[in-house]
Amino acid sequence: MIVAELGKPHGIRGEITARLRGVTVDELAAISSLRVRGADDSEAPVRVSGGRPRSAGWILRIDGVNDRDEAEAFRGAVILAPRQELPAPEPGEWWVDDLIGLEVVSDDGEPLGRLTEVLKLPANDVFVVRSDVREVLLPAIDDVILAVDLEEKKMTVHLLPGLIEEADAEAG
């Protein structure tokens, strides 16, 4: 399961910018069987030794990465962890990997499309739902996300005023 997306190098000591997916830096550092998958789909063991927050994510330290050139080799890679070594999500929380592909319907029964992406924004996550005719951005808040059924692969949402109208106007 993807637990971090690596970005560009930060500084000259081998640190790397990252977006974490449902884990903390301390949790990453405690997992002994992390792997890194590069853009070419090759995988190798990796160990996160620490990190610190950054305005738009995190800055990670990875064992064996000691300078900017070595960090550059990780640009665009992802860090993977076995699900069984991850903490269970809290009630009302889900792993991003479990949400991708869910059928999304409104509480009125209107099919909206499939959840294709989760955007991590400062205020809250945003679920990107796409169909053949439109893209809808749904804030991941209790007023909108009513139910998630992973077994049925279905999410039921309440559409706040303006969500669909704005998406339809942009498509048209």
Write a brief caption for the model.
By secondary structure, the protein is mainly β. The protein is built from 4 helices and 13 strands.
How are the elements arranged and paired?
Blueprint lengths: L1 E9 L4 E6 L4 H6 L4 E3 L5 E3 L2 E7 L2 E6 L5 H5 L5 E3 L15 H4 L3 E4 L4 E10 L4 E6 L4 E5 L5 E5 L4 E4 L5 H9 L1
Parallel strand pairs: 8-13
Antiparallel strand pairs: 1-2, 1-7, 2-6, 3-4, 3-7, 5-6, 8-9, 9-10, 10-11, 12-13
What is the CATH topology descriptor of the largest domain? Elongation Factor Tu (Ef-tu), domain 3
Care to count the β-strands?
A: 13
Overall CATH architecture of the largest domain: Beta Barrel
Overall morphology: elongated
From the alpha carbons, calculate the radius of gyration and give it in angstroms: 18 Å
Task: Order the strands across the largest sheet as they lie in space.
Answer: 4-3-7-1-2-6-5
Order of helices and strands: EEHEEEEHEHEEEEEEH
Report on this model:
The chain has 172 residues and is mostly beta strands. The chain folds into two domains: 84 residues, Elongation Factor Tu (Ef-tu), domain 3 (Beta Barrel), CATH 2.40.30.60; 76 residues, SH3 type barrels (Roll). The protein contains four helices and 13 strands. Strands 4-3-7-1-2-6-5 form a seven-stranded antiparallel β-sheet. Strands 11-10-9-8-13-12 form a six-stranded mixed β-sheet. A hairpin with a 4-residue loop joins strand 12 and strand 13. The radius of gyration is 18 Å and the shape is elongated. The mean pLDDT is 90.
